[in-house]
């Protein structure tokens, strides 16, 4: 507290710096607030210094997540201050009238998020398993559980052959899959189907077939991942596999079955989330709007942010993203690595952050001292 209080913020002018905070490993460990997270965010709000929360996590709608975060951190957070892994999916208007499959998250939560974003026809791997139990023999014992939250599939295109009558136009992994086997099987079936028609095959027998036939990628569904994290900081004292772990497993299956890029059969995928540029562009736009709202200044006199401090626990996502992001407004993004999450104190982080500190409080104290 002393460090922050001595570093009185220059209040004569609107602060031209702001913060982007990662959540898991910086503010929370799973559902437990980290020490000093509340004090740090409260202090910034008392000084009207703008900040947003930028996470590769998700699984709930932003409105539900901010209510949960406000309660856990005991700080008022609104949706203008939160960017989750799947938040950018809400802007994908061209797919909202298509048949999409949403993968990951707890029970039906991610379908509810997709429908709240405006996606009209959303199916899940659980829906498909309940409709066709034989599609994945190893989750039969979970059928009674799946039946408590899944939905009937959309009406088949051709009632005479329902098994091959569901077309999937795009697959979105919204959050960490809970049943990797089922989800990998169904995604593989969809991506190797004939133009997304479940139950059909574009792969007859092995790689030669694909190579000979010049596997037609066009017209195939695209797979969108929302979070590249191979590891993340949960409640357990060692990092846990994240959505990036599921993607690596799926890529291994894809390569083994199709021969992968060696046979010209590239997995049609888009990977979003930190550290990728589009996610930081989306976050910067949110931060700029939030700063205007916070300072009640909506004209150009406010000027652009000079610097954004990206505070994270994962070098591969938070630090790489903060270091590499190229702001179209000329804003400098400065990465600060904390020792309360994935990064292990005393090891050499790669990539190297602008600064390594103990926790989120130290990060803000150091940043404010830079602004004197
Ligand atoms: O699933 C969440 C995990 O991948 C990391 O989240 O908040 O550290 O970006 P976060
Ligand atoms: Mg983190």
TrEMBL record:
Give an example GO cellular component term for this record.
mitochondrion
One MF annotation (Gene Ontology) recorded for this entry: hydrolase activity
- GO annotation terms (biological process): glycerophospholipid biosynthetic process
Alphabetically list the UniProt keywords: Hydrolase
SUPFAM superfamilies hit by this protein = HAD-like (SSF56784)
Judging by the UniProt lineage, the source's domain of life is Eukaryota
InterPro entries for this protein: CDP-alcohol_PTase-I, HAD-like_sf, HAD-SF_hydro_IIA, HAD-SF_hydro_IIA_CECR5, HAD_sf
NCBIfam families (UniProt xref) = CECR5, HAD-SF-IIA
Name of this protein: HAD-superfamily hydrolase
Source organism of the structure: Decorospora gaudefroyi
């Amino acid at each position: 507290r002393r460090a922050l209080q001595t570093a009185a913020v220059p209040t004569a002018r609107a602060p031209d710096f702001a913060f982007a905070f990662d959540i898991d490993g910086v503010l929370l460990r799973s559902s437990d607030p980290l020490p000093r997270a509340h004090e740090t965010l409260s202090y910034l709000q008392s000084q009207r210094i703008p900040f947003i929360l930028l996470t590769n996590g998700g699984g709930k709608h932003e409105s539900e997540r901010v209510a949960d975060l406000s309660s856990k951190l005991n700080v008022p957070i609104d949706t203008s201050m939160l960017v989750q892994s799947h938040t950018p999916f809400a802007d994908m208007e061209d797919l909202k009238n298509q048949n999409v499959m949403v993968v990951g998250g707890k029970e039906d939560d991610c379908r509810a998020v997709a429908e709240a974003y405006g996606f009209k026809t959303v199916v899940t791997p659980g829906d498909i398993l309940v409709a066709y139990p034989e599609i994945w023999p190893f989750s039969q014992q979970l059928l009674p559980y799946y039946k408590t939250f899944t939905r009937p599939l959309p009406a088949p295109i051709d009632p005479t052959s329902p098994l091959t009558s569901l077309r999937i136009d795009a697959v979105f992994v919204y959050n960490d899959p809970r049943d990797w086997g089922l989800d990998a099987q169904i995604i593989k079936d969809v991506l190797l189907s004939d133009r997304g028609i479940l139950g059909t095959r574009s792969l007859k027998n092995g790689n030669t077939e694909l190579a000979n036939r010049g596997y037609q990628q066009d017209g195939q569904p695209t797979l969108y991942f929302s979070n590249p994290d191979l590891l993340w900081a949960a409640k357990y004292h060692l990092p846990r596999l994240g959505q990036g772990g599921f993607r690596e497993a799926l890529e291994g299956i894809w390569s083994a079955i199709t021969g992968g890029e060696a046979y010209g059969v590239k997995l049609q995928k888009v990977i979003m989330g930190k550290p990728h540029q589009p996610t930081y562009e989306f976050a910067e736009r949110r931060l700029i709007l939030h700063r205007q709202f916070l300072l009640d200044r909506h004209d150009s006199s406010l000027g652009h942010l000079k610097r954004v401090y990206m505070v994270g626990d994962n070098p591969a996502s938070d630090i790489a993203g903060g270091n590499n992001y190229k702001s179209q407004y000329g804003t400098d993004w400065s990465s600060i690595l904390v020792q309360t999450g994935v990064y292990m104190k005393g090891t050499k982080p790669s990539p190297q952050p602008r600064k390594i500190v103990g926790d989120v409080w130290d990060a803000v104290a150091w940043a404010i001292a830079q602004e004197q």
